[in-house]
Amino acid sequence: MNESRLEIKLSFITGLREVVLGEISKYQDIHIIREDVNSLYLDFIQDFTLIRHMGSVARAYVVIQDSKYNPLYISNHKSILSNPIEIVLNGNEGRFKSFKITCAGSDSFEVRSIAKYIQETYELTEKEEADMKIHIIKLDEIWEMGIQITPRPLSVRDYKVRNMSGAMDPTIAYAVNSFCELKKAKSYLNIFSGSATLLIEAAQSYPNIEHLIGFDNDKKHLSLAVQNIKKAGLIKKIQLKEENIFDKPNLGTFDAITSDLPFGMSVSKGEDLKRLYKCFIEYCENVLNEEGRLVVYTSEYEILEEIISKSRFDILKTLELKLMTSVNAYLRPKIFVCKLKR
Ligand SMILES: C[S@@+](CC[C@H](N)C(=O)[O-])C[C@H]1O[C@@H](n2cnc3c(N)ncnc32)[C@H](O)[C@@H]1O
Predict the structure, then answer these.
(1) Rg (the chain; Cα; Å)
(2) Which residues form a coiled coil (predicted)?
(3) Distance (Å) from CA 267 to ligand 1 centroid
(4) Hey, whose CA ends up nearest to atom 1 of ligand 1?
(5) What domains can you pick out in the chain, each with its CATH number?
(6) C-alpha span between 128 and 126 (Å, rounded)
(7) pLDDT (tens digit, 9 = 90+) per residue, 64-115?
(8) Which of 185, 230, 237 is nearest to 208 (CA)?
(9) Can you state the angle between helices 170-178 and 197-205, rounded to 10 degrees?
(10) Which of 285, 273, 286 is nearest to 310 (CA)?
């Protein structure tokens, strides 16, 4: 009866496709079958270890697609659910205590009977904020049934003690670092380090970097950064300083500089961003090594673009992302990859 094949689905932030493809290309065992707007479908693999450690992927699922697999069909053939549920549970029983089904008509008889089956067969409780996230959705002409392989999205990192308002999504931090040519870098500076997302992602992905330094002028952010760095086990590797960019701190020169610039309301309220960004670019002109990379992430890219155009930097590449904010509005930040003019 069950002819459709299991697949792995990876979803990511709009705009990060090339970064995800770059990360996947490192692994010979991963084969892409097809693509969707914000997701890639892979041949099924038994061992999820590689996937769980992917830095650029927001969420990963075990999925099965078939034009027949609507909620009514699944409720009449519940064994379709068993295989993917057991794969996700295998060895992780303690981590999954509750489940949620996302599906149009979740109060319908069919969906309720699916929920009852899961509850009774796997002793999981149905909850709004659940560990096991199951979806039954229609994509164009085909139905997809899928289960997220981890209770939390892959983009929620274990090192985050708590979320700082204005903190960067770790998959974007991974992307920013991927453009810095860090495999051959010895020194790395993160300006406006906040809760240290960029620093931790850099130290984890590129153990070759000898000096990682970040600075910020906010004591609370620095204290949270220290906690995150400790939790990541990187306290001996990453240095943090309390510094203000306007003081142009003397910290040496660097092979790579990254920054998630202060913006809008939540960070540096009332600050003159033009003045701040200008000072930032002038500082980077002086402390970036000749062949180094400056990679900047900002929503205020028009201000930045104008300042860069009058600077000693060339823009090698930009990447536009599209993010949903907590108030369901879209944000379209950009990543700028820059190099000093010769
Ligand atoms: C967008 S947040 C960085 C968030 C960080 N990437 C993270 O993931 O947590 C910008 C940071 O710039 C810092 N900042 C603002 N003005 C500054 C200044 N003049 N000098 C140094 N840091 C500043 C803020 O304290 C804030 O932590």
Answers:
(1) 23
(2) none
(3) 7
(4) 262
(5) 6-148 (3.30.2130.30), 170-340 (3.40.50.150)
(6) 7
(7) 999 999 999 999 999 999 999 999 999 888 899 999 999 988 899 999 999 9
(8) 185
(9) 60
(10) 285
